[in-house]
Amino acid sequence: MALTTAAVVPEAEPVDKTEPSVQEVVPEAEPVDKTEPSVQEVVPEAEPGDKTEPSVQEVVPEAEPVDKTEPPVQEEESHVTKRYSFCPSGWTGFDGRCFLYVPTAMTWPDAEKHCQRYGGNLASVHSFDEHHMIQTIILRATGSYPHTWLGGFDAIKEGTWFWSDGTPFWFSFWSPGQPDNFMGGQHCLLTNFGAEKNFDDGSCSGTLPFVCARKL
């Protein structure tokens, strides 16, 4: 008797064509905490430091109220200085500050008080360009280079200089051999000293013209 194909080859069982889902193969990921640690968690809080260094207020007189009613001036530019419309009349603008030469001779403390009445301080100097600009202001006002008070002093500690406006004293332009604290009583900074017309230390009780500076 002839055999049929069905009798030789058994019938195939039904195939389950449903593939397992990704969730069945790959276990579900646990929730991720995406919150980054704060700076405080990474960097421990700094402990309080010793801030016993004397303040400028202990040496420099306290500032007086400022009269800001002075009118602005028109813009004027040159290769040395730049005047801004928001500097008070008679002041010269340079690198974010306004400068004024005051010809009246005063002691260093009185000159500082006078500058504070304008909302500033005796001028600090932070670059050769600023020093040259201040000399230019003095020259234009006087026709010469008289000794002139600036804002430096070392009355807190001999040899450690500060600016009366509180800015760092990292730039200096001393004349040769200066500062020498002659006779032990020179604690205030003047400029236009010697042939180089640079910095010198002088007696704070001496009377000189001066340069004030205030922020724009």
From TrEMBL:
SUPFAM superfamilies: C-type lectin-like. PROSITE patterns: C_TYPE_LECTIN_2. It comes from the Eukaryota. Residues 94-213 form the C-type lectin domain. SMART domains: CLECT. Residues 1-77 are annotated as: Disordered. Residues 65-77 have a biased composition (Basic and acidic residues). It holds the Pfam family Lectin_C. This is C-type lectin domain-containing protein. It comes from Lates calcarifer.
